[in-house]
Amino acid sequence: MNNSKLEIKELDKNMSLGQVAGIYPGAINIFMDLEIDFCCGGNRPLGEALKEENHNVDEVLETIREKYRRDVKAGKTIEDFGRLSKGELMDHIIQTHHEYLRANLPRIQSLTDTIFRVHGENHYQMLHFVKESFNALKKELEAHLEKEETDLFPKMREYEQGRLDKAAMETTIQELEQEHDAAGDILKDLRRKTKGFTVPAGACNTFVFAFEKLEELEKDLFQHIHLENNMLFKL
Ligand SMILES: [Fe+2]
Ligand SMILES: [Fe+2]
After folding, report:
1. How far out from the chain centre does Cα 182 lie?
2. Which one Pfam family would you cite for this protein (predicted)?
């Protein structure tokens, strides 16, 4: 998708986190840096979410606006997912985020297994937790992708063509949103337990790479969940 536009839209503190990220996806990284629970709390107004975490609302809002303006001026593509039909959005989600998970979940599992095997003696508690939590996350996500691709997404395509009522999807959407919350909780625990994916001094390359991949997965998943919770699932 390539639809950069030079138009700058207004952002304000009464918009939900999901709406702000819908206009400027770069805001997601800022939310993550500020440890704002964006993934499961995307419906909260920006101002309220910042206040809860004791951030200066006006300052953060200005930072987001400034980065947004800078990106637009620099000619960076601001992906305007709001312009996509549901069908196009599902295609994008599958090709980008589902493909990413299918390729990377097994790789990261192999990395977390290896660092537990090699360094488990010195960092038993942390690495055992990382290995077990990641295995649980992988299992949950694999079932989740399957449910989206074989159950909800086909129904959503029918709905878009006017052949299905939205009531037929509501329960599945609720379940999928709960699964997003559960995956977000595992990632939050992983971040806390690893002190922000910080490796111990003198860690080997595999250790460094494993934590980099976990952080990359976290970023990808938050963007993925945002597109589903705040855009695709809004009927
Ligand atoms: Fe998905
Ligand atoms: Fe999902």
Report:
1. 12
2. Hemerythrin
